């Protein structure tokens, strides 16, 4: 019997207009087991989704670097040392990479240039506000939960390879054709799902997960029922047992309906 549903946000829970479709929203509210949001976003990037849709859900943020319960209390967090984050930012700056970088610590979001169009677009998508800062500001942080690199899609694979060579002590994952996520080496969505299940004494085989990107693949493979969205890259869909409809056509609803997790809506 399934006990929890885990879901990625962008490209999975949200459609291409960054909204939850009405049928998917009704499904989430009807199921009788917890629905846990799993995202690379910060907490402040998830709160608007909950508020706009009148949802109360636990959250896994920063790609697994922080877990919050349904009352928005932190029950687990793991970040990288500030000194390591500074090394990464200094490396990016020294090489003049075409990257708009973001540094996250708890619910603080520091960027190099608030007026960079890539930052403005990211703010619009997550409905949260960054603050401009530099290495001096980063040094003041107690720890860093994530570095986000917004990249030129033509060069992202090369940049990802270079970062992985330079910073083997980090978890470095491409989460879209323009985004690279850098976190503590032990952090991943799969790790956080295991941690969540351990904290609540849940057998991970009794859980479901939805995702659409490369940083979702490990979590889709460790749960009892991993389901890829139809809009996921082909490589992802080949690796998982089930594929549902895409994020624009209520993939979560159709999959949970097949699993008989709610009465007909």
From TrEMBL:
GO CC annotation terms, alphabetical: cytosol
Gene3D superfamilies in the cross-refs: 3.30.1240.10, HAD superfamily/HAD-like
Alphabetical list of PROSITE patterns matching this protein: COF_1, COF_2
InterPro entries, per database record: Cof, HAD-like_sf, HAD-SF_hydro_IIB, HAD_sf
MF terms in GO: magnesium ion binding; phosphatase activity
SUPFAM superfamilies, per database record: HAD-like
Identification of the protein by name: Cof subfamily of IIB subfamily of haloacid dehalogenase superfamily/HAD-superfamily hydrolase, subfamily IIB
Organism: Thomasclavelia cocleata
